[in-house]
Design a protein that fits this description.
The protein is α+β, with helices and mostly antiparallel strands. It contains 3 helices and 8 strands; from the N terminus they run ββββαββββαα. The two termini are 19 Å apart.
Amino acid sequence: MSVTAQGFTFDPPSGYAAEESTVALKPADHGGKPSPTLVFHSRKVAADATLDSLASEAVSELAAASGKVPRLTEFAFSDGAKGMLIMHSQTTPAGNVRQYLVIRLTNGTQATLMVNVPDVPELQATAPALMQTFASLRVG
């Protein structure tokens, strides 16, 4: 079975299957300037993992890295599934960044969509449209 991503294809050994994947997207016309980044990450999780435990783990990791406690709230996807939304701000060498993460757990796989938005007023205005992308996360 060949694996294709971003125009590259490779042939893993027999018996290998995807366990984790990450895709990062930026506006095509950002011209090297600060712009929002949308990141999708999926991974297999332990059979006893729950949405609450995965969200708590993410909140703990963000708090440990930044010294700030993120906000956590329930989230509803457009297909009716429940998720968790995490909102966080952090300081980076490039400036302040707001992070929004939504976590979904389906059939033993955690799917996370994350948006990093530089803390610039005109870019923060793009956050609502990016949140609609969060709602669209679905199986299949």
